[in-house]
Amino acid sequence: MKKEFHFLKPGNLVVSIFFIASHVWAQSIEDQWRAQYAIQEPRSNPYQLSPAELQTARQQGQWHAQYYPITVTGVLPPLRPIKKILESDFQNPLIKIIQVALDRVGILKSFDEMMDWLGLNVYPQANETGVYQVYVPEERVINHRLGMGTMSRYGADGFTLSCAVCHSSNLFGKTVLGLTNRFPRANEFFISAHRALAVTPASAFQMYTFSTSAEMQLFKDMQRNMRAVGAVSPLALGLDTSLAQVALSLQKRNPDAWATKSSAYEKKPRPDYLEEMPADSKPAVWWNVKYKNRWLSDGSVISGNPILTNILWNEIGRGVDLVQLSDWLQKNGKIIGELTSAVFSTEAPRITDFFSESQIDIASAQRGEELFIENCARCHGVYHKNWSLAEWNSASLADRIKTYRVEYKKQTVVRDVGTDAYRYLGMKSLEKLNELQISKNHGIVIQAQKGYVPPPLVGIWARWPYFHNNSIPNLCELLTPAHLRKKEFYQGPAVDKTQDFDFDCNGYPAPERVPQAWKKNPEFKFDTRRKGMGNYGHDEGIFLENGLEIFSSANKKDLIHFMQTL
């Protein structure tokens, strides 16, 4: 996103000076997307906009996160016919065929039920303020869920899934944009769509849905582009297989600079080890990106604007023509800048927005701060608290526990602390992205790593379960030696603060205390013994010394109380 400059006359010396200055400024903006860039302060305002400009860019970016803005997107299902399929009499023969194909979805009786199955959250209340407020233009009427948008093409309306599908979540009655969705099914959507399209002739689709010619054009585009999409199902509900979807989709294209479409490779894709090897991970929280200069849980994206990179990956996984996408990106830098501003300026929810400040043991948290600085800060950063400042002594507890400055590493590092390796091993397959012309045009570079980025812990209380693969249900388990951690646990939605959340351990309740409804749903059971879902690591040399714990039970409580204030 470059600022616009209005010049006077060509050849004017003043104009030339401004032109050179603006070019240097724009180059410095691009430099911040490289791993060599040293972050002096968290980049809540990466384009150095004025407060008014940032507010406008942030609002528009939030809207793009809700309504997918990529008008050349490869998958745009026709809205009205799909609604008709979902809401019609199930005696319709086409409906029966499609429902059989969608057996992994089950019987859906409305479009909203499909949105609910996909994991889309409801819109925040209109009167929300602060980090829970989501911008919606006044002229728009929202009658669906966060992350589902509509788009017109050929004169027909199609629907899209946007960033908010994976990057928004319900937190005890508040919908938080930028918080990891604990139960997204975006990957399952593509697998189900593959199955349905494979058994649905275009002629039958038109006959039974009464589709217009424009709607049929959308349907045929979707059929054609989905042939270039490869997808695998996540290991567990809550995990994402976008790495595999990108890698397998590229194997269905020609191995040239623009990954052009190939009917031969669509029928017989080139082999890739991500067909079998799991590389699952959870979607990331947005408020942490401002602290980093390399991206993803393993830090393998060492160059390139992470928002633009994510769009490229999304669209490879939707079968887009990369020449068309490149042209769109060149013409729509403003949209990329707005999305980037929205993501980088996101703030984390605070625990005192949901729980009484009386539940915060400040003396314990202050003891935990000392333990944290001594044992954890070298990787996860230093968090300067208001309670250390004399002027806050008489303030409310909620204000005293606030962090006034985060001191994270100037250059993002990757550490191997023995956690499940399958995710970072999977990145080797995506290094082929470096050869694409569109990656070169935008400075995107992938370099597989060994280990993961120790993330900033801002808002850590709200982003359970832990580790990149969701294998740790709460902070008590995280502070437990790996060989003693539970092999199975149950996960569920964060609805009831007393039943769905263990405040003392911060996260999912222990198996004997979870709601019975969770135990009845097989998707809510998490088995860490499965390949790629291991809960080992992050103990020896951190919480253990020569196999012995360095923290007492009281120490662990203090640490948890401190982390709840971050």
Provide a descriptive summary of the structure in words.
- A hairpin with a 2-residue loop joins strand 3 and strand 4.
- The chain has helices at 13-31, 51-66, 79-87, 93-101, 111-118, 186-198, 202-209, 213-226, 242-250, 263-267, 306-316, 322-331, 333-344, 362-375, 377-380, 397-400, 422-426, 437-441, 475-478, 516-520, 553-563, and strands spanning 148-153, 156-161, 168-171, 174-177, 301-303, 382-385, 403-407, 445-446, 488-490, 525-527, 544-545, 548-549.
- Helix 2 packs across helix 13 and helix 14 crosses helix 21 (553-563).
- It has a two-stranded antiparallel sheet with strand order 1-2. A two-stranded antiparallel sheet has the order 3-4. A two-stranded antiparallel sheet has the order 5-8.
- 34% of the residues lie in helices and 8% in strands.
- The chain has a domain at 53-344.
Brief characterization of the structure:
By secondary structure, the protein is mainly α.
Provide the helix percentage.
25-40%
- List low-pLDDT spans: 1-12, 14-25
Number of strands: 12
* Gyration radius from CA atoms, angstroms: 24 Å
What order do the strands of the largest sheet run in, or round the barrel if closed?
Answer: 1-2
What characterizes the major β-sheet?
Answer: 2 strands, antiparallel
The total of helices stands at 21
Overall pLDDT: 91
Termini separation: 31 Å
- Helices and strands: which structural class? mainly alpha
Strand content: 5-15%
Principal-axes shape call? globular
